[in-house]
Amino acid sequence: MNTPLNQASREVATLGGGCFWCVEAVFDEVTGVTDVVSGYAGGAVKNPTYEQVCSGRTGHAEVVQVTFDPAIISLREILEIFFTIHDPTTLNRQGNDVGTQYRSVIFYHSPEQQAVAQQVIREFNAAGIWDRPLVTEVTPAATFYAAEDYHQEYFARNPTQGYCRAVVAPKVTKFRQKYAHRLKGS
After folding, report:
1. Most CB within 10 Å of its CB: which of 13, 51, 109, 179?
2. How far is 180 from 186, CA to CA, in rounded Å?
3. Is the pLDDT of residue 150 over 90?
4. Is the pLDDT at 107 greater than 60, yes or no?
5. Beta strands 104-108 and 137-140: pairing type?
6. Average pLDDT, stretch 102-107?
7. What is the pTM of this model?
8. What's residue 95's pLDDT?
9. One of 19, 22, 54, 164 is an active-site residue; which one?
């Protein structure tokens, strides 16, 4: 049963796993997640635009900022989902999306988040879930810049767009199958 989120129980995770449309689409469906915002973090340019980030010259990664209630879903569970919906073993790449803006990265907001992220990575590597070691960066939270409005809820608003059908939809389907118990409304 979902309980109302109060400010005291709110936590934020900032995650980059390739194109933010994919990551946002999945976390929008997760029980305990109250907000997901696509944006940019980790670069040197203030208030970057999508075009600037896509150039690969700003240092930013496409990320989502996930607000969640840790009484309903833990950071560990958030990260387990995160590592399932993208390939954390490819450096600066997700499928055909290539460049540092598509890197796998966790921007931690506290020493506790850092410890959980490092532990989950060790466990995934030890379990051999992926054929290669995870290359996900674990780095202190950087300034987050929300992406332009047309990027927010992109998959929900454009499900028949080519990239959404070919790339985003399969990741959402994979999440729904593997984590049906974590779907909102289930």
Report:
1. 13
2. 7
3. yes
4. yes
5. parallel
6. 97
7. 0.92
8. 85
9. 19
**Cβ atoms of residues 85 and 175 within 8 Å:** yes
What count of other Cβ atoms lies within 10 Å of the Cβ of residue 57?
15
Q: How far apart are CA 106 and CA 111, in angstroms?
A: 13
Q: What is the pLDDT of residue 96?
A: 84
The three-point CA angle 87-106-14 to 5° equals 110
**Calpha distance 182→186 (Å, rounded):** 7
- Give one DSSP letter per residue of the chain, joined into a string: ------GGG-EEEEEEESSHHHHHHHHTTBTTEEEEEEEEES-SSSS--HHHHHTT-S--EEEEEEEE-TTTS-HHHHHHHHHHHS-TTSTTEETTEESGGG-EEEEESSHHHHHHHHHHHHHHHHHT-SSS----EEEE----EEPPGGGTTHHHH-TTSHHIIIIIHHHHHHHHHHTGGGBTT-
- The burial class, CB within 10 Å (0-12 / 13-18 / 19+), for 13 is buried
Whether 22 is catalytic: no
pLDDT value for 7: 55
Which pLDDT does position 3 carry in this prediction?
43
pLDDT at residue 115 is higher than 50? yes
